[in-house]
Design a protein that fits this description.
alpha/beta; Rossmann fold; Alpha-Beta Plaits
């Protein structure tokens, strides 16, 4: 019986993927094998020795101490693309809100008073202050062409916009899905110089922190609209406010309110609604529950932010061993040696590595004696050993 600890409310659709005869799932549970969470911050959480996996029902993992998990041989899974359509639609809404001055126009109408005739007269007199512009024919720059960025780019093309994209790390899978009519920018500066709108879809890492800053904003088109539905640290907000005040930037639309942004007349702040749809929450929960289950039961790794991708077909009647270790030389040799000493036949083996972590799956004919497990655990550099 696997024990799953949940933080936050995980969609029932996802939890249903964990059969009750094999999984105990609760928000309060001792000695969990895995954790499922959304935005709960794990940085100060005391990681139990029983923990084998962490599943984030969403894309970003800034709320999880990934380095600490890696050091303990614990993969962190996320759900890239599961909320992509929800974020895409909010980006489109953000462009329309800013281009048509909808927020300010709505506020204007809500404050109208008097008779219907007086309201109608004031509407006609006031509406000229809210003249906007159309999206068709404008250029959207997309920084980050992952699952979300690709959907945004393709949707903008369907609206009649020109689209330029920048992503030095675009995957082959995402490149295949991207419209051939999306033009490539050579740098962030190049993209800013060509775009009427700029939307960001990158994770918050040191490489992406303050992607939009004062120096780069100098290269932006006059009256550019910046949209940030990724992470707040990706935009230097002090530089953004200065650019808004000088008129360089027409509007800033973001999902991360703070005291610097709230109340600024050129800022549209939303309360982190990017993935807040029933569909996105269900998709994320299903995706991450499936990934955690497949890892616990078979050692399969898909969409881990710190472990390598790996999947090995499971032969009938075989006994599977999983070893997680530091990515250093001679580890496979030492693991194989421990198995050979016990005269165990290796039916199949798969080894993959990613940065400082390596994982090995071994299928054996006979059951695996405890003495073999103990010997492998004693190898310097081994972080975790499991029989699946």
């Amino acid at each position: 019986m696997y024990k799953i600890l949940t933080f936050n409310n995980i969609s029932v659709k996802g939890l249903e993927r964990l059969p009750r005869e094999r999984y105990e799932v609760a928000s309060e549970i001792q000695h969990p094998d895995a954790v499922l969470l959304r935005s709960y911050k794990l940085h100060d959480w005391n990681i139990p020795n029983t923990l084998k996996a962490v599943g984030r029902a969403g894309a970003g993992v800034n709320n999880i101490p990934v380095d600490k998990m890696s050091a303990k041989g614990i993969p962190v899974f996320n759900a890239p693309g599961a909320n992509a359509n929800a974020v895409k639609e909010l980006v489109l809404a953000g462009m329309l809100l800013s281009s048509r001055n909808i927020v300010h126009a709505w506020d204007f109408t809500r404050q109208l008073t008097g008779t219907d005739a007086e309201v109608a007269k004031n509407v006609e007199a006031g509406k000229k202050k809210y003249v906007g512009f159309e999206l068709a024919g404008r250029t959207l720059g997309v920084i980050g062409l992952g699952a979300i960025g690709v959907k945004v780019a393709n949707a903008a093309k369907a609206l009649g916009m020109q689209v330029v994209g920048y992503d030095p790390h675009i995957t082959v899978r995402n490149a295949w899905q991207l419209s051939a009519q999306v033009h490539q920018a050579t740098s962030v500066e190049d993209l800013l110089s060509k775009s009427d709108f700029v939307t960001l879809h990158v994770p918050l890492i040191e490489e992406t922190r303050n992607t939009i800053n004062a120096e780069r904003l100098k290269n932006a088109r006059q009256d550019v609209v910046i949209l940030n539905f990724s992470r707040d640290g990706i935009v230097d907000e002090a530089a953004m406010c200065q650019a808004l005040d000088t008129g360089k930037v027409k509007s800033y639309v973001c999902d991360f309110p703070n005291n610097q942004l709230i109340g600024h007349e050129k800022v549209i702040c939303l309360p982190h609604l990017g993935a807040s749809t029933h569909e996105a929450e269900e998709n994320c929960a299903i995706m991450v529950a499936d990934q955690v289950r497949d890892y616990l039961e078979n050692g399969t790794i898909h969409n881990s932010v710190n472990f390598p991708e790996m999947e090995m077909p499971r032969g009938e009647g075989l006994h599977r061993l999983m070893v997680i270790n530091s990515n250093v030389p001679h580890m496979i040799e030492r693991i194989s040696s421990a198995i050979a000493k016990a005269n165990l036949n290796i039916a199949d083996m798969l080894n993959r590595s990613r940065n400082d972590i390596a994982c090995t799956l071994v299928d054996l004919d006979p059951p695996i004696p405890e003495v073999v497990l103990d010997e492998i655990k004693s190898i310097e550099g081994v972080l975790a050993v499991r029989v699946l």
